[in-house]
Structure formats: structure tokens, C-alpha cells
Amino acid sequence: MNEAFPDIPKIQYEGPKSRNPLSFKHYNPDEVVGGKSMRSQLRFAVAYWHAMRNSLSDPFGGGTAQRPWDDGSNSVANAQRRVWACFEFMEKLGVDYYCWHDRDVAPELNTLAESNAAFDAVADELEKAQKQTGKKLLWGTACLFSHARYCQGAATSPHAGVFAYAAAQVKKAMDVTHRLGGEGYTFWGGREGYATLWNTNMKRELDHLARLLHMAVDYKKKIGFTGQFYIEPKPREPSTHQYDSDSAACLNFLREYGLLEHFKLNLETNHATLAGHTMRHEMQVAIAANALGSVDANTGDELIGWDTDQFPTNIYLTTEIMLEVLRMGGFTTGGLNFDAKCRRESFEPVDLFHAHIGGMDAFARGLKVAHAMIEDGRIDAFIKQRYSTFDSGIGAKIEKGEVGFAELEAYALANGEPLLGSGRQEMLENLVNDYL
């Protein structure tokens, strides 16, 4: 097969003074930060659906993307050819992982049996490419939202036949993920929600969603798949409300249905924005429950009301993300998957490189700044001091559960109005800018 990117060399680290747009200014994969190489700390992944399949259409116009390796057909041969374009892209970019939806890597044909056979044929090529290049599958997932059968949901559809079809599709996607040595498997409920409550039995739909996930847990054990299960939150779009709306909702759902021990969260910045949260908020909620597994590395435009899936270039954002990752001890599963696409105006193949280079450099800078913050210790020391009244005395007794209302009333009567300390928000924001 001819090269998909014949005019683009392997991207090298050239340092911040380089003027070569096809080079890394900050991402040096072998540089050690926080006791690990950047490659190990960041664990970058290419999102197959955006890098290889996204046509760059939007609600007001058709696709603009130029993909000369793709003949535009829905054939298995075209899908197999696309595999090698993706792995050439990863090789030249120096990214070790990729992620896919089943219907991105292989075509959906007239019957489930035909689609499964096509998936197996493309998986043959994926397996060859992985062995040839050493690249790995970070996680796989099933696309349970694009086909018309899923217009009213998949696991939450009011039609049992749709539930059965979705379960069969998940089973096959798990089989292929397991075959390819995938390190995880993600569940994203793109249409698991409702448009109106006038036609919805919410409790029944949530019960059905939990039933599918319990089936997946059982099947995971049956086939010996040891990868991590993830749920990816998103509050809305296309549905009015989606059941996996944010970190807190997902964790509550998992606890209610006895699933928390089997799942972690795959968090996305753009979805946090749609939920009215910051990415850092979503990460802290997940980390507090020991449930942060992986990150979809993108960002959204707060002036646009949909999921724009832009590449992250804001160093403040990447610093906040990496600060939380480092504080939890680094990724033990998952990584940074670029669930992001070029802008519709950036349609040439080389733009895929520019976009990923920018995101990788932004996260490399964020990693270094976050590590410097932790090493310096001033922010952590301030937070520790702010809560120091809970380290001893009445505060320690509160945290240990040794006092109740009567004891606290007596304390308040004896000690009078409590003394407060300033939150020093402005000082801390200035300090963050000093690190940046």
C-alpha cells in the first residue's frame, strides 16, 4: 500500500526555539517528569472516529475533509486500507495508542452477521498492524447511537428487540477488544436518555441500562477480559437529558445498581462544559470515589451550544488536568485520548498533524507546570493550612465522629464566634500564573 502521508516525516522534538510547525516544541517523549517519561505519564491515543472518519461536517454544511487514502465506499477493502493509514499516522506522530468505535473501523452492513464478519476482517488488519508497529488499543466501544434503530436509545429503548441488538453489538465489540489486547472498554450512552418525560418510564429505562452493564460484567468474566470498564458522562445533545449526565450522576447510578467496583469514568472536557462544570470539577468528583480511569483530551467553545470537540491548546486547562492526574498518582489505566477533530476549514491531511502536535505540546507543558506546582508545594501547603482546624481539637473529633449536636452546641457556647481566615483566591491565581 502507498503511504497515506508521503510528504510528512516522523515528527521530532526540536525544542521551544524551533520554527518548524511539524515538530514538537515541548513534548519530548523520553524526558522524565515526576519519575516517569512523558510518554508514560501522558499515554496519548488517537481517536479513530475523528482522525480517520470524521468528514468535518456541521449542522449547516457537508464534510470538507480530504482523505486521499479513502475511496469513500462502505467496503471492507476500504476499511482495511484505512487501518494502515491510521497506523502510519500514529507512527509518524509517535503516539502509542488508539481508540475506536466498532462502526468506525468496520462498515455496518445489511445484517448483524454480515457486520460481524466485516468487523472480523478489519480486526485481522488491526492485529497485523499492531504486531508490526507495537501500537496498542487503549479501549474499544460499540456505536449504539448512529443507526436509526437507536433513535429512541439502545439499552434504554422501549423496544426489547433494540435492547437485544445492542447487547449483541456490545458482545462483539468486547470480543474484538479482547482479541486485540485492548486495555479497556468504554460505554457511552449517546442516546441513553429522553427527549420528553411524557413518553418515558425513567425508572424502567435505568433498570434496563443497569441490566445491560451487569450482562457486560458477566461476559467480561466469561471471556477472561481483564481490561478496565469505563463510562463516559455527557449531559445532553442529542437527547434533552442523558442518564450519564456528569461524574456525580454516573457514580450515583453505579452505586445504586451495585456496579461501582467494575467501572471507572472516562471524562471529556467538552462534556464537562455542557454539564455546566469545569473539567477539574469532574475529575475531582471521580478521583474522590477512586473512579477516574481515562480522559478524552479535547475542549469546547463556550460560545457554541454543542459538542465542538476541539483540540486542547489552553495551557491553563492542560495544567489543571495534569495536576489532578499527578495528584492521584498518575494513570494506572487509560490515558489521554484525543477525542477531537480539526475545524471544518482545516481540511487537508497535514492539518491532522498540526492539530495533534498542538494538543500534545499543550499537555506536555501542562505536565511540567503541574509537576512544578507539586514540587514547589506552596499551593498544597496553603490548602492544608486552610483546613488545619480539623487536624486537632474539636475539628478532629468531628471528622472521627466522636461528637454530636449536644457536644458541638456546648463548644459553640463556650468559644463564641469562630475566627475565619482569608481564602486568598487572588493570591493563589497569581501564583498559578507565576508557574505558567
TrEMBL record:
Metal-binding found in the keyword field: yes
Domain Xylose isomerase-like TIM barrel: residue ranges: 114-297
Names of required cofactors: Mg(2+)
Catalytic residues (UniProt): 101, 104
Keywords from the named record: Carbohydrate metabolism, Cytoplasm, Isomerase, Magnesium, Metal-binding, Xylose metabolism
Gene Ontology molecular functions: magnesium ion binding; xylose isomerase activity
Entry's cofactor comment: Binds 2 magnesium ions per subunit.
Quaternary organization: Homotetramer.
Protein name: Xylose isomerase
Organismal lineage: Bacteria, Pseudomonadati, Verrucomicrobiota, Verrucomicrobiia, Verrucomicrobiales
